[in-house]
Design goal:
The protein is mainly β. Helices cover about 10% and strands about 35% of the residues. The longest helix is centred in the N-terminal third of the chain and has 10 residues.
Length: about 290
Amino acid sequence: MRKPLVAALFALVIAGAGAVPAAAAPAPGQTAARTAGADRATAAPALAAVDFAGTVALSNCSGSVVRLPASADSDPALVLSNGHCLETGFPSPGQVIVGQSSSRTFGLLNSAGTQVATLRANKVVYSTMTDTDVTIYQLTSTYAQIKSSYGINALTLSDTHPVAGTAIKVVSGYWKRIYSCNIDGFVYRLKEGNWTWKDSVRYTSACDTIGGTSGSPVVDTATGKVVAVNNTGNESGGRCTVNNPCEVDANGTVTVRKGINYAEQTYQIPACFGSGNQLDLNRSGCVLPKP
């Protein structure tokens, strides 16, 4: 888990970081690759355009307006972030929060990373740091209202397990920065302090996310769909402590990867929602932890 305010101060003293959040930059080799491929007779498959549209900035974290594969435009919109970004504090191990009142606000960004609106929640639909690290808010606006007023579509949650090697982008509304890398693999158990997460995504080293990126959507660049939510990284090589998560395999072997960052998969979420974007933890196929 990242400490956003500490990370913000840290970022300001890094050479070249500056006082303004970094803009999205092409992945290493991207420009050269495009040039080299320009003369080829057969173009490479088109990739989804991944930018800031639909992402949000929280007071201390990042997030995104998301819809489920079966969501209707008339449904109340949802915002996805981390459980540890919940405004009332970290949920305890084993704690699941459902239907908690909230009036939290979110700065909605357009494709260029400019805030175009302030959205407001009316409740925390679901929040936990057990098995996963997720908070889902319900907004006072529908998807159709957001689209009509600001021309911005929600990001869609994938309902299938991602694949190792997949090219991804981590899009931070807090820093207005996009990180590009690949899914390096999956972690049987990721342990940080008193919390344990299952089947976490491990990034390749290019996604060197910092504090404030917590809650950022992790987007599959081929489909444009959200496959995970960014949540933590091992900052100083510590073993299984806060801000220094460790990997634990099925045999109990512990591995520490200093400087490597992680996310929690989100493909399990759609199965837990019915019509009208209503949470139903008793639906068939829903495996999210229950209160």
